[in-house]
Fold this protein.
Amino acid sequence: MLLLATVVNQQAKAQTLPPQITQIQKLQEAEELYKIKEEKAEETRKTLTRAEAEYKKAEATYKAAKQADQEASQAAKSAKKAVQLHQKSIKADKKAQKHSNRSENLSN
């Protein structure tokens, strides 16, 4: 019952306050809300800055990986060509050995 009387009393006081006081209260509430929104905006800016930095790191990593992939692909092509040349060299050596053996047989 006492609580109800207190609430009714406060409502009566609020209704009897001069308009300047209610305007001041509204301004104070608006200021508090503005401060809260500014803090949230600052947090958002910080988060965005961190996200941008992470994106740039990821982009650099991607570019480096792509470059490494291209270099590996080129190295694989070069290795394949080297193997082919080595195989041709072995075949040429065998042919040369056959001709050398034939020459020796003919000279004997």
Q: What stands out?
A: DSSP finds two helices and no strands in the chain. The helical segments are 2-16, 19-107. The mean pLDDT is 85.
